[in-house]
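Chapter summary example.
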Amino acid sequence: MAGALCGLFVSAPMARAEIGLWDSVGFVAGMILYGFAGFYLGIDTPSRSSRAHCFHPGHDTRSDAVELLSAAGTFLAATAALVSVDVLVFGDTLPPAWKIALSIWWLCGITMQVIAGIIARARA
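The structure predicted for these 124 residues follows.
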């Protein structure tokens, strides 16, 4: 639900930017679904069976990279959603360039979560 709400909060100011593709119901629904999938895949990654091997030299660091990718994606997406909520609640207006930057930031974060979730599930 958090991912879906983040998608809604990010898409709402973008829908008011008066850019043709962004002011459609399909775009908003797509952002909600992509946010839902990204948060599910990125936050609910399968854990490794044992963390004891991480303390030995020569251990597999791929799980660390997946966790970092997931955490960084969650941070980017949540920060973009926080800025979007601020815009909605306080009635601030952002220039179209900032709205585009905010949406790219959110999309990069969600994509990082999706990639981390896919990698973690492929290894499980």
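To summarize the output: The mean pLDDT is 80.
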